[in-house]
């Protein structure tokens, strides 16, 4: 089965900053050696102060986005409270783990802000969940990590984080044939909410 799956690629990044969370991706969609689209969104709003990046099989990622949005909405209706980021991360981890024998072929980053602060988590296809200060997923991530490890600082401002993201994605786009595209998507998540910028 593994040999029949068409390889895709991308680069996504998440950063914890002093004043919020940044989630980002480039915009190229590839399938094997073919560029399918140069203007694809890979950063999504899950709730008012929660965002998610996707890398991997798009249909699997879309399914997870829909499930999470529905579960968060249901939780709000039943409790009249916002779901904490840790609870969202635990929920996604359980959903992905339940399919570990036939996994969702995707890597996910979830970030957001709640009453307990800023949180950033990465997930592999079997549901492993790791809390991070910075993280990258996708085929371009090996090229990104060198820059993140060198230049990431605790308590970076959002503007400093955006510059770091631009530098890191530029590096990935130069070396990874599946990364690039016409846009750079950056989501800024602060106490004011979720704001997606091109």
Descriptive report:
It contains four helices and twelve strands, in the order ββββββααββββααββ. It has a single domain (2-190), classed as Glutamine Phosphoribosylpyrophosphate, subunit 1, domain 1 (4-Layer Sandwich), CATH 3.60.20.10. α3 (141-151) packs antiparallel against α4. The strands form three sheets. Strands 10-1-2-11-12 form a five-stranded antiparallel β-sheet, with helices on one face. The longest helix is centred in the middle third of the chain and has 22 residues, at 58-79. It starts with 11 loop residues before the first strand and ends with a strand. By secondary structure, the protein is of the alpha+beta class. The protein is globular, with a radius of gyration of 16 Å.
Concise account of the structure shown:
By secondary structure, this protein is an alpha+beta fold. The protein contains 4 helices and 12 strands.
